[in-house]
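Batch job 17 of 40 flagged for manual review because the log was empty.
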Amino acid sequence: MTETTMTALDTVLAYHRAWTGHDFDLAMRYLADDIVCEAPAGRIEGAAAFRDFMEPFSKTVTSSTLLSAFGDETTALLMYDTVTIPVPHAPGAELHTVENGRITHLRIIFDRLPFTQARTS
């Protein structure tokens, strides 16, 4: 499948497999240069800033289970659970907007409390 024939869900699933599989260079290929990410930590703009935000977390992931995935022509929604070095269960959800085979907008929802507790333990 080429980038122009991939659905939004295909693109997002490929991105998810890449970052959870510790291939962040491949994951970056699915992101627009001007991506905007809304995360619990705040708004992140641009691919470089997004990489600075997401890559360190991806390195802590030891496994990931995709719980659900839905999509249409321009959006995709994933829910997953990751096992990380500091936290045994880190569920998350991501809503992606995809244009021309690239993720242009990403809203990430996850519970920060287990990570805060792990840092203070």
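Reviewer: the log was empty due to a logging misconfiguration, but the result itself is present. The first strand starts at residue 31 and ends at 39. Unflagging and moving on to job 18.
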